[in-house]
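haha ok so turns out i had the wrong file open the whole time. this is the CORRECT one, sorry everyone. sequence first:
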Amino acid sequence: MKRALVTGGSGDIGRAICQRLGHDGLHVIVHGYQHPEQALNVADAIRTAGGSAETVEFDMTDEQQTGHVLAKLLEAGPIQVLVNNAGVHADAPMAGMSSAQWRLPIEVCLYGFFNVTQPLLLPMIGARWGRIINISSLAGVTGNRGQTNYAAAKAGLHGATKALALELASRGVTVNAIAPGIIAGAVADTAFDATAIKNLVPMRRAGTPEEVAALVGFLASEEASYLTGQIISINGGIA
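then structure:
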């Protein structure tokens, strides 16, 4: 059974991704840091549905702690699927943005990406099979007011995705990013009302976490073996 690690697995999109991968027959390692009890609930739901799951807790901005936890996980063999889903907002107009606000999304989205991904690469390469799927954002493609920090972090993740895909293309490991637009859930529900969504999205609705998870499921599959280095937008037609 292939193993998948999903960072930020307790949020709306993370939960849907974990459940999809569990349904697809992978053993899912659900990462939670700020809300470990929610990660436990996600793992329990996967097991109740007949799947296989466990939880793991670490601060992905802490390189030493992350490396220690991943080393323990790797004792059981390579992790073949990695979904870098964890992210954080610290929104503010840049003219009034503090240095702490600037750093936070970059530390999680970029330093966290490195801290989690780098230790898993050699085992993936040794297995000659792997899937790295980075969850980005529309903000990293088009920018967004009040999110200069977040957009910079996600755009940086796009560059890392493309470069790492080139490094691993001959090793049986694919690297892609998904850039969701407005996806129904706690974050979007507080930021957009129904009228705003209809005005912003050509499909006139928010996407669902399950639609994002379905794309992750495909990218994690054998059928996606010739697809790498791509930034795939899923946003209801926003240009």
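The CA atoms of residues 33 and 92 lie 24 Å apart.
again sry for the mixup
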